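Memo to structure team: turn this sequence into structure tokens by end of day. - J.P.
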Amino acid sequence: MNIERLLRHVPLLLAACLSLGAQAQQQPSSNAATALGQGPGYHDPRSPIKPLQEREGVVSWPLLSSVTVKAEKKRLVPSFPAGVQALDKQKVKVQGFMMPLEPGDKQRHFLLSSVPTSCSFCVPAGPEGLIEVRSKTPVRYTLEPVTVEGQMAVLSNDPYGLFYRVLDAQPAE
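Reply from structure team:
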């Protein structure tokens, strides 16, 4: 197969990957506003990486993913329950799987995901399953779960569509 022919299939493979990721993330719901292909993510039981365990003193992903969304004018508008709203501007510990946003093995800007990434082209979760992290000190990239502590921001109108951000983060136990 020549290279031009192979390159024609890349968009199709990428679209299939994104479609499968969205299908895996959908959760059955009677509320049509939450059935938009979003979700806290899907942890494949065949994954060699163990799923996150709930830890005392660490914000839980089930709490963060309890946000509901509705589509308004080509964007998703989040509605946060009181428990999530109470985290805004508070010092919190969060854990997740690192998705680097910078080159190198030490990261100051990255995403934490509720589930490990399984595809280089796919985001593993909807915005309720991701936290943008800006850290004071670099955090070494790893495939294992990462825990950081910093100031939580609950975002209702982020230009990138994120719902959560942790600022001034530092590695935590």
